[in-house]
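Structure in, sequence out. Go:
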């Protein structure tokens, strides 16, 4: 384990360090709920009084099937899961901002990727002020899988550039022993590989590329979602959402599912014409049993309460 100088500066008697240490411990506990065989990530958001607001792990939103194939196949995992930091933010959005003294703090077991970091920075106006990280996490690029090297580097840059306070302390829990938990999944992976050796190639996503360096602030739907949450403070759970079909992606569908929206209306002049990624996204909505309908218009993004009869 690579230990940085920050580990030597940790003062367990400091009130801030004590709060952050408890929060980081809770993040590691949340990570143990992840299905991922090799990289379990946890994130916890707490208010100024130290009360947890939302906790999450990297994994599938509620309603998305946790199949062995999706869990053990890296390419499929990326397309069916959300990162812990994003799921923690969505859990906060489901509840709304009322009753949680600001500023809020998020602790994560891993350095946020570029996508999650951009979302965290965008939520600063909603009251999010500090990111707590494990000071003993490695910073050298060799410690990360190739496809995440650039994303993690960019994520830290976005947090610093965006003005997010970064507090790094060594986790008092150290790293949870994942051997037994991961072992069961590796046994399943071995059995699955023996039974279907070509499964990873046969079920690779078609027609689009997963981008670990996306900036959610540049995504029209996510920008509108975060703006609505910041302006209204209202719970986002059970909302009725309207958006143009052109804005529906796999990631957008997963976010709608994890928000537990009640209904989705898709504006399009040609309901019968979908891209491969839109077909995939619609399949996610069906799997999570979220009703959706088409409207023959190219409408703006609208969020309404579930009591609203029509959009």
């Amino acid at each position: 384990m690579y230990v940085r100088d920050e580990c030597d500066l940790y003062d367990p008697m400091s009130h801030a360090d004590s709060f952050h240490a408890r929060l980081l411990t809770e993040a590691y506990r949340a990570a143990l709920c992840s299905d991922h065989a090799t990289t379990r990530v946890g994130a916890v958001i707490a208010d100024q009084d130290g009360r947890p607001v939302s906790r999450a792990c990297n994994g599938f939103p509620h309603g998305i099937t946790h199949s062995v194939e999706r869990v053990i196949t890296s390419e499929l995992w990326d397309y069916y899961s959300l990162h812990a930091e994003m799921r923690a933010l969505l859990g906060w959005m489901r509840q709304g901002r009322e009753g949680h003294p600001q500023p809020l703090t998020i602790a994560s077991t891993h350095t946020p990727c570029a996508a999650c970091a951009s979302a965290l920075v965008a939520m600063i106006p909603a009251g999010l002020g500090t990111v707590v990280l494990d000071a003993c996490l490695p910073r050298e690029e060799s410690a990360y899988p190739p496809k995440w090297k650039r994303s993690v580097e960019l994520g830290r840059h976005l947090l610093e550039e965006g003005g997010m306070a970064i507090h790094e302390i060594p986790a008092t829990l150290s790293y949870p022993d994942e051997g037994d938990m991961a072992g069961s999944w590796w046994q399943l992976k071995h059995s699955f590989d023996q039974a279907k050796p070509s499964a990873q190639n046969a079920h690779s996503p078609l027609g689009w590329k997963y981008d670990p360096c996306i900036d959610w602030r540049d995504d029209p739907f996510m920008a509108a979602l975060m703006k609505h949450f910041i302006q209204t403070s209202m719970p986002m759970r059970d909302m009725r959402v309207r958006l143009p079909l052109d804005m529906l992606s796999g990631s957008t569908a997963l976010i709608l599912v994890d928000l537990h929206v009640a209904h989705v209306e898709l504006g399009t002049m040609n309901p019968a014409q979908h891209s491969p990624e839109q077909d995939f996204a619609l399949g996610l909505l069906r799997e999570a049993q979220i009703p959706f309908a088409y409207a023959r218009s190219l409408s703006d993004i609208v969020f309404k309460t579930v009591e609203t009869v029509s959009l």
